[in-house]
Amino acid sequence: MSELFDAVDALVASRSPLPPPAERRRLRQAHALTLDEVAAALGVRRATVGGWESGKAEPRPPEREAYARLLKQLATLYPAPQSTGAPQEDTGTAAPAAQARLTGGAAEAAATAEAEEPSAAPPAPVPHAAATRRPVPRAERAPQSSRRPTARKDAPADTPAPGDVYAHGPLLVLDADTERQVTGYGVGGLILDVPAKSLPALVEWTLTEARLGSQKLHGSGKDGDPLLVLTAAACERYGLPAVLSEAERLAGRLPEGHKVIKQLERADWQLTKRGLGPWARIYRPAHGSRRQCVQLCIPSWRALDDRAWGHAARLEPAELARVLGVYAARVMTPVGSTAVTGLQLMTALNPPTRASEPDGDGKRHREHRPGSLGTQPMDPAPCEATDGHPVLAHLPRFHVRRPDERLFEEAYDWARDLTDTECMQGHLVGLDVNLAFGAAANGAVVGLASPPVHVTSPVFDPAVPGSWLVDLSHVDLSRVKVAKQWRRLEGHLLPSPFTPTGKRPEGPAWYATPTVAYAVELGYDVAPLEAWLRRESGRFLDGWYKRLRDAYVATMTDLGVTEKLSPHQFLQAMDGYKARDPELGIVVDAVKMTVKGGIGKLQEKARGGGWKPGQAWPALARPTWRPDIRATVISRARINMHRKMLNLAAATGRYPVAVLSDCAVYAADGPSPLDVLPYGADGKTVPGSFRLGISPGMVKHEGTQSVLWGADVLEQLGADGHVANLARYIKTGEVTAKDTGE
Questions:
Q1: Which long-range contacts does 388-396 make (Cβ < 8 Å, 24+ apart)?
Q2: Quick one: DSSP state of residue 700?
Q3: Among residues 298, 209, 201, which one has the least CA distance to residue 249?
């Protein structure tokens, strides 16, 4: 009979009545509970509770019964307010009846809030007590004359300690309800009431009361500005359009005469040259050491690119705050696209100046900081300049530079036809290198703040960064040194390490130092004809790599993929890892795009109407416009990939059939990377080759397709001697457009 009773109880629990999603959220906030606290109590993920409150999902047994019990108790403490006709602005005042309904701990909290109610405004703005990590519910606040009271001068508890100036974290996601009340969602489940009724007032509140921002990443750097993320509802609340018109989207900003921009101007706030767009900076000139600057991010204006941030723009405010908060803590507070943030991170970790020693009057001054790129932009060597750069203004119009005129260090895009032996194998397996450009940046010796020097007939020195004009066409991959031993290989089955297309060079060409050094490593002499060299050099990107590497590994660890896993365990952990916490999955992708985009920004090209070849464009004014550094990193990434393929070929006779940037495809008898990589019983594989793992430079499984699929793609897309790159489609198997190699 007890089993029947248990079955009846379970049936009742499975249909435990729940209030509507909006009421669930109201009850939780009324008791000052965070999503994390509710999730921990119920033994579920934070995102799960968020889904219940947004109506995207419904709880199931056994959590449903416990969740219903929680909401029932909260509803007793905080009954739903009675409708009184037209909606009125919430003044934060608790009616006597509401006060009478509070019992136990809730009544104690209300009494405490009333006892701490400030009575006088201080001479300087300080954060208000309501803006705390455990805010007092609105129904529990004591009566007051205005919606947001100010703190008393004699209330030291409200004044942030020296290290508490950014107590509320780096950012808030702002949302507005139907009554035009604005709520800010921060990191760790923080929820703040936002009293500002205009954009200028919002900026003022952020800088004086919100306690938002982040500590500098280097002793000589600057603190991070607070970030406000405005939902579409918050945009409308502050007089901004929920979405940009087509003309505004193409311009990337609101027109100068927009009413909100005029409001900012009247309040003496300024915008940077990019204006009020998806990412905007609102500031006043700094006085003293404290900056007055607030960053805006507007997802409904396409601030969060799907390629980097996935579905982040469609998340609920609390979930979006979590995603951006984790990214801010592990990388930095976003200041634009992931590419822009990646570039800014370089400067934040390696500032161009530092404080000097005191002079005769005891004053300190800014001076160049050794190891940095300095404060002044630098012209590249002519061979390093992109087409249209002012240093190439003397070239005829439409001139196409040859390899002996232009440095062309790019990632691989190479493919070949399958051999007869490979056609007899059943599978094509893709291997993808983790953070390939990040791993290549680690330890890269690059030029710093001195311009390049031109040298004729130089002796090659692998320790000197620069660009070298040298003929590498004599390097024969059929006979090369592998681990300092001469080996015979099927050279025609490997791409050339010296060109992105994998084709063998035909004469002198410009190469970055790592590419020429690899030719020497393979056992061949080199005789450069000329070079542009940088005598002042250093490992500028090491700190940048380490921070991004740590962010990536920490987030993957949170998703259940750790560093010290056996190959089998690693493949199992990687299976569906993003589904374990989709929000952290977004962070992983954003970190990867920060690495790739940051390196790309080192050679940002001219864009926008009105530019003509030979004219400077805005990016050239940055000290971080350094195509030579980008070339060094990409050269190292391509060489690292080739070295792994070479070592695998020498040890196993396996050769890649396609390579696209950091992905290599191999034919195999089975569908797993373990059918390609010869792991022994000791868990080790070929030294210097591909290794499965999560660390940058190691590889993961990109995807597997059948050899028949590959043959069909090659037949469909092959034309005029062109071989389709199977690495482009190996992940999903979908071929959506003709492969032009672009």
A1: 388/606, 388/611, 388/612, 388/613, 388/614, 388/615, 389/620, 390/614, 390/615, 390/616, 390/620, 392/613, 392/614, 393/613, 393/614
A2: E
A3: 298
Report d(CA 303, CA 46) in Å as an integer.
25
The three-state secondary structure class of 55 is coil
The rounded distance, in Å, linking the Cα atoms of 666 and 648 is 11
Give the separation between CA 623 and CA 351, rounded to whole angstroms.
Answer: 11
171-176 and 227-230 strand pairing? parallel
How far are the Cα atoms of 239, 398, 618 from residue 270, in angstroms, in the given order?
Answer: 17, 41, 20
391: left (phi over 0), alpha (psi -120 to 50) or beta: alpha
Return the half-sphere exposure (C-beta side, CA atoms, 13 A cut-off) of residue 350: 23
Choice between 30 and 11, residue whose per-residue pLDDT is larger: 30
Residue 467 to residues 401, 440, 447, 541: CA-CA distances in angstroms?
Answer: 16, 17, 11, 19
| Token pair recorded at residue 337 | 């696209």
- Cα 642 from chain centroid (whole Å): 27
176-203: pLDDT as tens digits: 998 899 999 999 999 999 999 999 999 9
Q: pLDDT per residue over 432-444, tens digit each?
A: 999 999 999 999 9
What are the DSSP E strand ranges found in 224-370? Answer: 227-230, 270-271, 279-287, 290-297, 353-355, 366-368
What own/partner pairs with CB < 8 Å and gap ≥ 24 does 320-323 have? 320/173, 320/185, 320/229, 321/171, 321/172, 321/173, 321/185, 321/186, 321/187, 321/190, 321/229, 322/46, 322/187, 322/583, 323/583, 323/584, 323/586, 323/587, 323/590
Q: Which two tokens stand for residue 86?
A: 């037209």
